[in-house]
Structures are given as structure tokens and as C-alpha cells.
Amino acid sequence: QMPGTARHDREMAIQAKRNLSKTTDPVERLRLQCLARGSAGIKGLGRVFRIMDDDNSRTLDFKEFVKGLNDYAMMIDKEEAQEIFRIFDKDGSGTIDFDEFLVTLRPPMSKARKEIIMQAFRKLDKTGDGVITIEDLRGVYNAKHHPKYQNGDWTEDQVFRAFLDNFDSPYDKDGKVTTEEFMNYYAGVSASIDTDVYFIIMMKNAWKI
């Protein structure tokens, strides 16, 4: 975890629960229910959908969608679920693409926030190929300070891998982090932070930008 995110997570969860009683927009309600579980809440719903997707089509029909929401203990009635499904099923095919669903569910961010996130990404992406890998991290991140490295539990590569897994898609942990995955992670963190200024300071401190 990055410095300070545990506290933001708690604040965000409390804020999301508070806002839930005020909003009537079904997509916003679903987003807030996810965020009430912390910044990985949206990713967690993605994981549930992934498990439901038996044929690896990366799409869900309405029945699977509702089952996923129920398995994830989302408080949503059938009418509301239908409304959400219709919003995401843009072409009316009767299925939704769940990558698109997760991106739409992601809390919106200002241009300033996206820019600082991309700066952090570029700093980590040493090779500049648009993907962060263990190779990239060797030049940027010192594994030797990690407690599990110090007590001999983990090798340097295992420390790097655990670090990448924070940002990786929960259903596709492949040790590579794309800009999309990095953005998704920070959208969750961002939701707990009210002002751009504070978010930017946090990012600058965390990544020494």
C-alpha cells in the first residue's frame, strides 16, 4: 500500500455511506456501495463478475449481472438493476462488457488528478512501453527496506510482485500494470480526497515527483 491510503480508505468509506442516503441515481448508488468497501471495492465487484463469466467472453447477461451483484451483497432491487443494466448495455445487445462497466463505475476525476497519476506512472515505467513490470521497478523502488525482504521471507522479485499486485486487475494478476489499471486504482483513492491540491500533494509525496 502507498503511504496514507489506509486512512483515506476509511474516510472514503464513511463518506460513501453518508452520500448513499442522498443520491437517487442508480449508477451513483452502485458506485457508492462499492466505495463504501474502500478503494478496491470497484475492483472487487470486477473479480465477482470475472468468476461469473464462465465462457471467458468478458461480458455478462442480465441474469449473471444480478447474480454478481447479489454475490457481492449489493443492496439493489430488480428494477434498479434493470435500469443500471440498460445504461451499460449501450448497443442493446442484452449483454454488457464488464471492462467498460468498471471504467464507467470508476469515480470521475479532474484533468489535474489524471495528469499527476500519469506522471507517477511514467516515473515507474522506466522502459516507457506503457506497462509497469518487475524490470521497471528495479530502477525505481528499493526492495531492501521491505520488512519481508529483511526477515528473509521474500526475494526482491517477490517484493516487486506484491507491489505490482496492488495495482493489477484482481482477475488478471499477470505482474504487469497498464495505465488503465493504474488509473482504476487511483480513481478509488481519489474518491476519498476532496480537493485536487491535497490529492496532488499526496501523489507528489508518495512518488517523489
UniProtKB/TrEMBL annotation:
Gene3D superfamilies: EF-hand (1.10.238.10). It holds the Pfam family EF-hand_7. PROSITE patterns: EF_HAND_1, EF_HAND_2. Residues 40-75, 76-111, 112-147 form the EF-hand domain. One of its GO terms (molecular function) is calcium ion binding. The keyword Repeat applies. Keywords: Calcium, Metal-binding, Repeat. The keyword Calcium applies. This is CAPSL protein. It comes from Dromas ardeola. The lineage of its organism: Eukaryota, Metazoa, Chordata, Craniata, Vertebrata. The gene is Capsl.
